[in-house]
Amino acid sequence: QVQLQESGPGLTKPSQPLSLTCTVSGGSITTNLYYWSWLRQPPGKGLEWLGTIRYTGSTYFSPSLKSRTSISRDTSKNQFGLQLSAVTPEDTAVYYCARTPGPNGGFYDYWGQGTQVTVSS
Q1: 15, 63, 66, 100: least CB-packed within 10 angstroms?
Q2: What are the phi and psi torsion angles at 70 (to 5°)?
Q3: What percent of the chain has pLDDT over 70?
Q4: pLDDT of the residue at 104
């Protein structure tokens, strides 16, 4: 069974970078055709997709956040990370990592529990 676990700082100061890690167990992030994504949900708002790293290592991002978002991976640790630069209080949200089981899946079959990120001075 695939499990995903987010980790990172719960509190980040404005203008600072945010780094989160998703640790995957029960499945490899390099398995053919699987996609690995970051999403977030601000308080009182809907779920927002941030970006995705494919099994090949290629990435793509939400247009609204592309300029300050990156995703990387460490295949030896079966982890992928989110880096969000120059955060503001508007970035306060619960952040999730999730898997899509193929390029045409159109859904996420496994999710992490989510990790709260608060941006405040």
Answers
A1: 63
A2: -145, 155
A3: 100
A4: 82
